Amino acid sequence: MEEVVVITGAGHGIGRGIAITYAEKGSYVILADKNVENCKETLRMMKGETGEIIKTDVSDPNSIEALMEQVDQSYGKIDVLINNAGVASFKPMDELSVSEWDTVINTNLRSVFLCSQAAAKIMRKYRRGSIINMASTRASMSESGSEAYAASKGGIVALTHALAISLSKDHITVNSISPGWIEVSDYEGLRNVDHFQHPSGRVGKPSDIARACLYLSHPDNDFVTGENLVIDGGMTRKMIYEH
User: Fold this and answer.
1) Distance (Å) of CA 208 to CA 64, 116, 213
2) What's the predicted TM-score (pTM) here?
3) Per-domain residue ranges of the chain
4) Alpha-carbon span 185 to 157, nearest angstrom
5) How do strand 28-33 and strand 4-8 relate by DSSP bridges?
6) Residues 80-96: pLDDT tens digits?
7) Neighbours of 120 (CB within 10 A)
């Protein structure tokens, strides 16, 4: 059977772009998202390539368990897991409630561990696999009111190298990607200043992240593990002062 790829948060944005790219490659893509209608649109954009939707709420451990059990029973393997699902909550720290903090951490960070833990049990049967976790440049740079999101993404970077070591004996690579500004809705509506502030000369697209996933999950690239690949057009390497 063709490569089986599980992508959480595949209903929109970066997850949708990754799903389309793997489908074009010929992979069988599992769209794991709680928004089924969005995933139906992703399937349509995959233009008839093979894939299916499994409704999944990654903030719910039982939903994650059900996802992995269904994939295992139906296909018996997972070649690639992409932990992409996430939420953002930006508000003044004095106004951030415990429940809001928990929602972000459980959805963004805890889910990465639980999905990886469950997928690794399936990958071990073939003693190979690739896990890619979606972090963010906000793991290393911040603006006011981003505490929960920054903590979750920083946690993903640290969790990635921990998982890479723990799963190395099973020949499972684990890497993360930290996107910068990836425009997912109105790319044509961006201003020149939006593009030209980037050393790359443009704002990023979901396809930029998708191509990196293809690289990290390719079996020939098993020498790359425990890494965090920053894809941000050079912005975090740019020294910015007001003159």
Assistant:
1) 27, 23, 9
2) 0.97
3) 4-237
4) 26
5) parallel
6) 999 999 999 899 999 99
7) 20
Contacts of 237 (CB under 8 A, 6+ apart): 199
- The pair of three-digit structure tokens given for residue 15, joined into one six-digit string: 């997850």
Written as six digits, the tokens of 116 are 């990886």
Q: Which fold has domain 4-237?
A: Rossmann fold (3.40.50)
Rounded Cα distance, 62 and 109, in Å: 16
Residue numbers annotated as active site: 149
User: Reduced to 3 states, what is the DSSP secondary structure of residue 53?
Assistant: strand
For 132-164, the pLDDT digits (tens) are 999 999 999 999 999 999 999 999 999 999 999
Q: Enumerate the H helices of 61-146 as residue ranges.
A: 61-75, 98-105, 111-123
Residues 6 or more apart from 32 whose CB is under 8 A from it? 6, 7, 8, 9, 10, 54, 56, 58, 67, 85
130, 167 contact by CB (below 8 A): no
pLDDT of residue 240: 83
Q: Which residue in 14, 3, 13 sits closest to 81, CA to CA?
A: 3
Report the alpha-carbon distance of residue 68 to residue 8 in Å, rounded. Answer: 11
Q: How far apart are CA 234 and CA 24, in angstroms?
A: 28
Structure tokens at 149: 């999101």
